[in-house]
Automatic annotation (TrEMBL):
Protein's name in the database: Aspartate carbamoyltransferase
InterPro entries: Asp/Orn_carbamoyltranf_P-bd (IPR006132), Asp/Orn_carbamoylTrfase (IPR006130), Asp/Orn_carbamoylTrfase_sf (IPR036901), Asp_carbamoyltransf (IPR002082), Asp_carbamoyltransf_Asp/Orn-bd (IPR006131)
NCBIfam families xrefs: asp_carb_tr, PRK00856.1
The organism's place on the tree of life at top rank: Bacteria
Family in the record: Belongs to the aspartate/ornithine carbamoyltransferase superfamily. ATCase family.
Residues that, per the record, bind L-aspartate: 78, 160, 210
Function: Catalyzes the condensation of carbamoyl phosphate and aspartate to form carbamoyl aspartate and inorganic phosphate, the committed step in the de novo pyrimidine nucleotide biosynthesis pathway.
PANTHER family: ASPARTATE CARBAMOYLTRANSFERASE, ORNITHINE CARBAMOYLTRANSFERASE, MITOCHONDRIAL
Record has Repeat as a keyword: no
Involved pathway(s): Pyrimidine metabolism; UMP biosynthesis via de novo pathway; (S)-dihydroorotate from bicarbonate: step 2/3
EC number: 2.1.3.2
Catalytic reaction equation(s): carbamoyl phosphate + L-aspartate = N-carbamoyl-L-aspartate + phosphate + H(+)
């Protein structure tokens, strides 16, 4: 694998390979490779807790050396382009770049970068490592994707998580449905839109999305009061109680507690939210190993 940019670029075999490797790292069945004299830079132009920190832990466990980069103290502040920043890091001997950027498909400008790139999220485009860790979490639970009913709820239009999972879960055989306010419908994605209350007792997975406040600067975007949103589109106690016994609750986090999900339910028995984060570190080790092979 040369780069990891979008779930649309991965075959189902590649998805299964990455998830299997991550699971084997997690169980101890596969020894962790050690990459000596290998340098990585994590370039986060948007904020992050989970993706940045879990990439960092994954890199340290694989023996990589981290070359620090902060946008606030770098020459980005003097107007340096993303391409020039990346080309500079390549020129001075960095072997791998992990990049999060607010620009959709920022990586299209980086075709002439000759070291691997792991996309840690591009605007409202793609978030491939989030999708892969979600797939790993679902696979741990169900062992297959065929016919699973997945309900993705919330800010579909602005969510790179929704977009990545839409492509990958359908490719793996799951049925993907969306539920969202009309203003956040994404007409480019073909999954059916449903009322959460019509299907909550039938789904195998309910995946809640963070309301993407930072992407709502455009006139006409939905602007709901937190409680109103929670009652209409969120996981309330009453909806949770209607879930099938074996159903699971997912959220990429950070969670707006009391908005997408009732605060008490974040760690409820059916919630896999912290399991997703745990799996993310193993999954990112698998991605780094595949990129540096
Ligand atoms: N899920 C996710 O991408 O979280 P962060 O923005 O904290 O990395």
């Amino acid at each position: 694998m040369k780069n990891l940019l979008s779930m649309e670029h991965l075959s189902t075999d590649e998805i299964y390979d990455l998830v299997t490797t991550a699971s084997q790292y997690k169980s101890g069945e596969r020894a962790l490779p050690q990459f000596n004299d290998t340098y990585v830079t994590n370039l986060f132009f948007e904020n992050s807790t989970r993706t940045k920190c879990s990439f960092e832990v994954a890199e340290l466990k694989l023996g990589l050396k981290q070359v620090s980069f902060e946008t606030s103290t770098s020459s980005v502040k003097k107007g340096e382009s993303l391409y020039d920043t990346c080309k500079t890091l390549e020129s001075i001997g960095v072997n791998l770049l992990v990049i999060r950027h607010s620009q959709n498909a920022y990586y299209e400008e980086l075709e002439n970068i000759n070291i691997p790139i792991a996309n840690a999220g591009d605007g409202s485009g793609q978030h491939p490592t989030q999708s892969l860790l979600d797939i790993m979490t679902i696979y741990e639970e169900y062992g297959s994707f065929d016919g699973l009913n997945v309900l993705i709820c919330g800010d579909i239009k602005n969510s790179r998580v929704a977009r990545s999972n839409y492509h990958s879960l359908r490719a793996l055989g799951a049925n993907v449905m969306f539920s969202s306010p009309e203003e956040w419908v994404d007409e480019t994605l073909e999954a059916p839109y449903v009322n959460i209350d019509d299907v909550i007792d039938q789904v195998d997975i309910v995946m809640l999305l963070r309301v993407q406040h930072e992407r709502h600067g455009i006139a006409g975007e939905a602007n709901f009061a937190a409680e109103e949103y929670h009652q209409q589109y969120g996981l309330t106690q009453s909806r949770y109680d209607k879930l099938k016994d074996e159903a699971i609750v997912m959220h990429p986090a950070p969670v707006n507690r009391g908005v997408e999900i009732k605060s008490d339910l974040v760690e409820a028995p059916k919630s896999r939210i912290f399991k997703q984060m745990e799996n993310g570190m193993y999954l990112r080790m698998a991605v780094i190993s595949a990129l540096l092979k």
